[in-house]
Amino acid sequence: MMDQNTTNLPRPHFISKFSSSMWKLTCYAVLVHGHANHVFVDLANISQDSNTTCNIIRQTLAKYAGHLPSVLYVQMDNCGRENKNQYVFGLFCALNELKIFEKVSLKRRWSESAKCKAF
After folding, report:
1. Using CA atoms, how far apart are residues 86 and 40, in angstroms rounded to an integer?
2. What's the sign of the alpha-carbon dihedral 86, 24, 43, 47?
3. Whole-angstrom Cα distance, residue 52 to residue 67?
4. 3-class DSSP state for residue 110?
5. pLDDT mean over 40-61
6. pLDDT tens readout for residues 83-118
7. Contact 24, 43 (CB under 8 A)
8. Fewest beta carbons within 10 Å, which of 11, 32, 64, 77?
9. CB atoms near residue 75 (< 10 Å)
10. What are the residues facing 67 on neighbouring strands?
11. What is the rounded CA–CA span in Å between residue 105 and residue 16?
12. 88: closest CA among 99, 76, 100, 103?
């Protein structure tokens, strides 16, 4: 999952009366290597938690139900609240136990600021 900090999308310097009344949306990007990019849009007033993450993973896998590989490679950003918790890992374990995937390989994507702090 990526957020505005990861992509460095521009932010408005001021919020006008018009834009303050607009819907606030949260966008999630999913890259399926060799196939397509998917964008999921959610209202910002709905909590962005592990349920959202699991639902996005489920919807993405459902799109490729007949063409799933034997190994699921997942790369997530370094956000423990939504991505690396017991519910998301429980989903990956269930996918493995149900023999949907023989193996699930997880990789963390470190942000540039985390790299600078770590090294």
Report:
1. 23
2. positive
3. 24
4. coil
5. 82
6. 667 888 899 999 999 999 999 988 766 555 444 333
7. yes
8. 11
9. 12
10. none
11. 45
12. 76
**What pLDDT score was predicted for residue 50?**
81
Q: How far, in Å, CA of 61 to CA of 23, rounded?
A: 28
User: Six-digit token pair at 5?
Assistant: 């900090």
For the chain, how are helix, strand and coil distributed in percent, rounded to 5? 35, 25, 40
The residue with tokens 């989903």 is 91
Strands 25-32 and 36-43 turn out to be antiparallel
Nearest of 36, 33, 29 to residue 2 by alpha carbon: 29
Please give the structure tokens belonging to residue 26.
């949260």
Q: Concatenated DSSP letters for 74-104?
A: EEEES-TTTTSSHHHHHHHHHHHHTTS-SEE
